[in-house]
Amino acid sequence: MQTILHKAATRGDANHGWLHSKHSFSFANYYNPERMNFGVLRVLNDDQVSGGMGFGTHPHQNMEIISIPLSGDLEHKDSMGNTTVIKEGDIQVMSAGTGVQHSEYNKNKDEEVKFLQIWVIPNKQNVAPRYDQITLNKADRKNKLQQVLSPNKEDEGVWVYQDAWFNLTELEAGKELEYTFNMEGNGLYVFVLEGSITAGDHVLERRDGLGVLNTDSIKLKASEDASVLLMEVPMQL
């Protein structure tokens, strides 16, 4: 097993006043040649947006864009005609394909919205743009894996144009589970949202990330109550 450890404090830090973002990989003004991506996982931004503020209308092309709200309400509008709000418990996916424009704003004036912005490089170019969002049942991830994203339309969760699988889990202190890879040659990026876990030989704390390669499974054990996002992705761009 090969591992790549990214401690929370080593992430890029961009504070624009209205937006405070931590970048696990190179993004915008944060450039680290050793932190460009993890396989097709290109962007993992941990964003906090002030009340009433947000990202104005801007374009994307040929990228799978996933948003996972952690708290607050995020209002989405796009050139496909979608106007909606996503909140904690939801997951949003947008295939930019041939091109789409969208905006994301904090719907509330009196509280921050916190969310993960994730970009995955697709395995199909110039597809028709599409949008989807679902609401997850948090109880379905207590001490077990809840699949929230896959390549398959008929599977649980949203789907993307890539051989990628995302899972969430809420592990109680002392509980353990094993993650088994879906596809040979894929890597797994473990991202701790809250709490602390042991993943293989590594102790991971809040917002630490661990890339896992050259294995077909890994065991996770919570040293305290923990919330974890697992992102399995192809390593070949």
Task: Give a written overview of the molecule.
This is Pirin family protein. Belongs to the pirin family. Pfam families: Pirin (PF02678), Pirin_C_2 (PF17954). It comes from Leeuwenhoekiella aestuarii. Its cofactor is Fe cation. This protein is mainly beta and 237 residues long. The protein folds into 2 domains: 11-135, Sandwich (Jelly Rolls); 138-234, Sandwich (Jelly Rolls), CATH 2.60.120. Helices cover 0% and strands 57% of the residues. It has no helices and 20 strands. The protein has strands spanning 2-6, 12-15, 19-23, 41-49, 54-60, 64-71, 73-78, 83-87, 90-95, 100-106, 113-120, 130-135, 146-150, 158-159, 165-171, 176-180, 186-199, 202-204, 209-213, 217-234. The strands form 3 sheets. Strands 1, 13, 14, 15, 16, 17, 18, 19 and 20 form a 9-stranded mixed beta sheet that branches. A 7-stranded antiparallel beta sheet has the order 2-3-4-11-6-9-12, with no helix packed on it. It has a 4-stranded antiparallel beta sheet with strand order 5-10-7-8, with no helix packed on it. It is globular, with a radius of gyration of 17 Å. The mean pLDDT is 97.
Topology record:
Layout: E1 2-6, E2 12-15, E3 19-23, E4 41-49, E5 54-60, E6 64-71, E7 73-78, E8 83-87, E9 90-95, E10 100-106, E11 113-120, E12 130-135, E13 146-150, E14 158-159, E15 165-171, E16 176-180, E17 186-199, E18 202-204, E19 209-213, E20 217-234
Parallel strand pairs: 13-14
Antiparallel strand pairs: 1-19, 2-3, 3-4, 4-11, 5-10, 6-9, 6-11, 7-8, 7-10, 9-12, 13-15, 15-20, 16-20, 17-18, 17-19, 17-20
Low-confidence stretches: none
Terminal-residue CA separation: 21 Å
Q: Main beta sheet: strand number and arrangement?
A: 9 strands, mixed
Q: In the CATH classification, which architecture of the largest domain applies?
A: Sandwich
CATH topology of the largest domain: Jelly Rolls
Rg over CA atoms: 17 Å
Percent of residues in helices comes to under 10%
Number of domains: 2
- CATH-level-4 superfamily name of the largest domain: Jelly Rolls
Overall geometry comes to globular
Class derived from helix and strand content? mainly beta
**So what's the CATH class of the largest domain?**
Mainly Beta
The helix-strand sequence is EEEEEEEEEEEEEEEEEEEE
Task: Calculate the mean pLDDT score and round it.
Answer: 97
Indicate the proportion of strand residues: over 45%
Number of helices: 0
